[in-house]
């Protein structure tokens, strides 16, 4: 949902830029700024920090190896 909103809103901003004369490409600022936030959000969704249960399982796995 966040990626879809990012694409749609930025397409709208580019359309506004184009309709207003297509001078300096000012939509780059929200595209870049919001893109950084979206990248951090994707990172937290796809590579979350391990929770207590995962840490305990890893500790037990390491203990069994010894």
Outline of the structure:
By secondary structure, the chain is an all-alpha fold. The chain has three helices and no strands.
Question: What's the SSE blueprint?
Answer:
Blueprint (H helix, E strand, L loop, with lengths): L1 H18 L8 H19 L5 H14 L1
Helix pairs in contact: 1-2
For this entry, give a set of tags.
66 residues; mainly alpha; 3 helices
Protein model, in words:
There is one protein chain. This protein has 66 residues and is an all-alpha fold. It has 3 helices and no strands. The chain starts with a helix and ends with a helix. The model has no long low-confidence stretch (mean pLDDT 94).
Figure out the total of helices: 3
What percentage of the residues does DSSP assign to strands (E)? Answer: under 5%
Helix and strand sequence: HHH
The profile of the biggest β sheet is:
none
Weakly predicted, low-confidence segments: none
Oligomer: single chain
End-to-end span in angstroms? 45 Å
pLDDT averaged residue by residue = 94
- How does the overall form come out from the CA principal axes? rod-shaped
Q: Could you give the count of β-strands?
A: 0
């Amino acid at each position: 949902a966040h990626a879809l909103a990012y694409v749609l809103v930025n397409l709208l901003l580019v359309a506004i830029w184009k309709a207003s004369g297509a001078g300096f490409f000012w939509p780059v600022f929200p595209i870049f700024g919001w893109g950084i936030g979206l990248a951090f959000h994707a990172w937290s969704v796809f590579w979350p920090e391990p929770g207590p249960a995962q840490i305990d399982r890893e500790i037990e796995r390491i203990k069994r190896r010894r």
